[in-house]
Amino acid sequence: xxxxxxxxxxxxxxxxxxxHGETCGALLGALMGISALVGREHxxxxxxxxxxxxxxxxxxxxxxxxxxxxLCSEIHKIRHGKTYRxxxxxERTAFHDAGGHGPEGCPVVCGISARIAAEVILxxxxxx
Length: 128
Fold this sequence. Notes:
By secondary structure, the chain is mostly helical. It is 64% helix and 0% strand. It has helices at 4-9, 25-38, 46-67, 72-80, 89-97, 106-127.
């Protein structure tokens, strides 16, 4: 459903935007996905942009409720007890060693985000 270019455009979102702990890349990816489906195609189309905000807000709020936060650095604290600065190679290694990509780390967060987005997309398809 999402083009190769859209998927490629999200490459630098991991680690909270270029590994700097900001908004979780999994959340940003879910928002990109829903926007690719229901967002505006032309900048002046403010009505379609407004319509896209409802499902985007649903994704954001469900993500925050299920994960506990939207910032990567805060999600680290929730899941691993501390924040890792992933742009520093030694801390990135420590994050991996602490299970950052294990059963309670990023893959789980990505899966939850994908499930939330899928549920919203399925709801939208039922309506149309």
